[in-house]
Amino acid sequence: MTETLEPPPTVLVVDDNEQNRALARATLEEEGYTVLLAENGLEGISAFETHHPDCVLLDVRMPQLDGFEACARIRQLPGGADTPVIFLTALRDVDTFDAALRAGGDDFLTKPVRPTELVLRVQAGLKLRRLHASNRDYYDLVRRQRDDLMRLQLQKERLMSFVVHDLKNPVGTVDLHAQVLLRDKELPERARSGIMSIRAEVRALMRLILNLLDISKSEEGKLSPALVLTDLSAMVEDVFEALEVRARAKNITLDRSIGAKEATADSDLLRRVLENLLENALRHAPEDSVVRVSTIPVDSGVELRIADSGGGIPPELRDSIFDRFVQVQSQDSAASRSGRGLGLAFCQLAVEAHGGRIWVEDGSPGAVFCVMLPHAS
Length: 377
Description:
Layout: E1 10-14, H1 18-30, E2 34-38, H2 41-51, E3 55-59, H3 67-75, E4 85-89, H4 94-102, E5 107-110, H5 115-134, H6 136-182, H7 189-219, E6 228-231, H8 232-242, H9 244-249, E7 253-258, E8 262-265, H10 267-284, E9 290-298, E10 301-307, H11 343-353, E11 357-362, E12 367-374
Parallel strand pairs: 1-2, 1-3, 3-4, 4-5, 7-9
Antiparallel strand pairs: 6-8, 9-10, 10-12, 11-12
Helix pairs in contact: 1-5, 2-3, 5-6, 6-7, 7-11, 10-11
């Protein structure tokens, strides 16, 4: 007896952006799905009535008929009540999430969409549909728990965004008052040294705040470098001056080797990448040692190398050190290499936004953090 194979599930993608439709189609067809495309909400409703897809990917903002209204109408069609509808939106906030649920959405995916996550959400939607058919009570419980977790995550992100924005002004004010105090020529040397230490810590706190803001921008697809021709020699000198107090506290010598004098980059982002990497090196370099910054011209662009002689990083952990909030134990060191767990994550996001890459090499002893910035296209 010949076994009858079930046809692959059909996914309807409704999005007014051609690139988004092409990405979704290529991703899902590679996984064996049949994909239907529609450019707006009205076309999507018509395609649903004709083809009865197993799952719908629905953009929120579209001309003529937005995704919320299109979803509400699909729910009124034959077979539309139990078809998974996954909203695609660039707006990652609680209000948009709640509006998606009120419209009858089953899931919520933020742009830019990652192919792997897209496939997993479609698979989950289809599984929940089968669960719905066999056990309604269990299905409703799982969905409520998932929705509550998602709403909690979005509320946490919004709170963090508010806090970070509100912290910038008072932190900047503290630094401004410290600068005013330093202008007093009669200030005792001990007090001057203390105020300079305060400024160093304030700058580190401001870097943390800006890292959080830029990580949030990257998640929303809004971290876009403003590329200009950047003087690397002057930038390295400025960063050395900013971190002088930290280096002097451990009697660490900051050394430079400027082979490549210029790079095409976002000056502010690149400076903070260099500050984060140097701060990380100073944190783990032993006393009376040297931390060295090198800029090297390579065929594909410019390479920056920040080397310390600390405990180093095991080879198997050199990729995960750039993950957010991950703390990797240094070799022969009780300190964790990632500190607060955001500095190195920001560095990776900023470098990749330039089209470059960042990695770690063995310094024998210590670690060498390498950044490659491509030539401007």
